[in-house]
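To illustrate the input format used throughout this study, we show a single complete record. The first block contains the structure-token representation of the backbone; no residue identities are included at this stage. The design step must infer an amino acid for every position from geometry alone.
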């Protein structure tokens, strides 16, 4: 049930007419309390969409009563008019919920948008759609909400983890522009655990750092990335931090893997594990460099275990390593040993969807895992035709 798996939440997803094809394009998630604690992380892109600028302010208040999300338009690079439209969207949500008996201020409404950059939203369709969505709010509406935020996604993405008397649920959208920067997509997470805002913030940042920040499909950072975690406290249960943080991370990890699995045009999911690094930062930097090497991504699409391109990518980083001590394995075969030829590359079986690359820096004991995809003609086609 996605974002409505936890008690204290209702959701809806409708077709408001924002998308020309008539597909669902507007989602509403409402926290019915009793607690309305919230935390969020957002894109670190210096070009930020109006909804990001608005929601950053909302989250600073520590309470979020509702989240309204639209697909079909990013409302990014739209100037003062775009920010006014975001404000109007939040005002409309507050008005509709208050009229229905849930007193809400616009400053408690987070807004998220996804779609083409540089296009003003059709407010004559979006604002009436909010009323329609509010009328359809349901404790079983999580799946419809997840469907409504899809853009180039081929499937909707949800995840749930059950705690001891409490739950964490979530939904995500994303299939392109997946690259690290605090968050990398639109995600709404919910929990009925009785958790205060500082704890939510810590758990979300810890989880994001190790999950969403470590998927890198195409090296392109979005202007709209938003990840929100809302707590209703409806279960009346206050779990310990470690237990709660583990559940949040598990949901984020599940959603992150679904994002990679649905990346635009991809035919291979690439798990890059960097081991024996001097620091975790070194391991992440090396993993990210490997993930963004287009020559390697093309080779892996062609099922060519071209380990030379792995070494080339490692060599562009500032990480500590000795070139003559590097080791690389592809699908368990150590094709490079001590910076030179290793086991027979013909032993590498690359027929299956998942490819595992292990890069051994031989400098310490730290490690990190980055997920990426291959580079395909389908990816090029989809992104060349996207605006049409």
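Output of the design step:
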């Amino acid at each position: 049930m996605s974002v409505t798996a936890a008690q204290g939440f209702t959701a809806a997803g409708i077709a408001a007419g924002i998308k020309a094809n008539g597909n669902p394009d507007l989602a509403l998630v409402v926290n019915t309390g009793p607690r309305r604690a919230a935390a969020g992380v957002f894109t670190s892109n210096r070009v930020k969409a109006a909804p990001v600028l608005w929601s950053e302010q909302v989250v600073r208040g520590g309470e979020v009563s509702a989240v309204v999300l639209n697909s079909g338009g990013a409302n990014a690079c739209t100037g003062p008019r775009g920010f006014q439209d975001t404000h109007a969207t939040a005002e409309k949500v507050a008005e509709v919920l208050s009229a229905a008996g849930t007193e809400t201020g616009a400053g408690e409404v987070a807004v998220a948008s996804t779609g083409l950059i540089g296009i003003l939203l059709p407010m004559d369709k979006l604002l009436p759609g909010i009323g329609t969505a509010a009328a359809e709010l349901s404790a079983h509406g999580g799946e419809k909400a997840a469907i409504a935020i899809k853009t180039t996604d081929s499937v909707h993405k949800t995840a749930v983890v059950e705690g001891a008397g409490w739950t964490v649920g979530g939904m995500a959208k994303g299939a392109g522009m997946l690259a690290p920067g605090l968050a990398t997509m639109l995600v709404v997470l919910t929990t009925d655990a009785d958790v205060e805002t500082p704890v939510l913030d810590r758990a979300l940042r810890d989880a994001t750092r190790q999950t969403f920040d470590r998927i890198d499909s195409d090296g392109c950072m979005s202007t709209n990335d938003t990840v929100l975690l809302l707590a209703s406290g409806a279960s009346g249960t206050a779990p310990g931090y470690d237990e709660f943080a583990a559940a949040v991370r598990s949901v984020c990890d599940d959603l992150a893997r679904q994002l990679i699995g649905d990346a635009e045009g991809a035919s291979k999911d690439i798990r890059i594990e960097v081991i024996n690094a001097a620091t975790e930062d070194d391991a992440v930097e090396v993993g990210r460099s490997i993930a963004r090497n287009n020559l390697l991504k093309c080779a892996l699409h062609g099922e060519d275990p071209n380990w030379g391109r792995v070494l080339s990518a490692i060599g562009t980083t500032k990480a500590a390593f000795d070139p003559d001590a590097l080791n690389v394995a592809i699908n368990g075969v150590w094709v490079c040993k001590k910076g030179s030829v290793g086991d027979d590359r013909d032993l590498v079986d690359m027929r299956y969807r998942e490819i595992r690359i292990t890069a051994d820096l031989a400098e310490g004991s730290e490690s990190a895992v980055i997920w990426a995809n291959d580079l395909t003609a389908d990816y090029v086609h989809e992104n060349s035709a996207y605006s049409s």
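Structural context for interpreting the output: DSSP finds ten helices and 15 strands in the chain. The radius of gyration is 22 Å.
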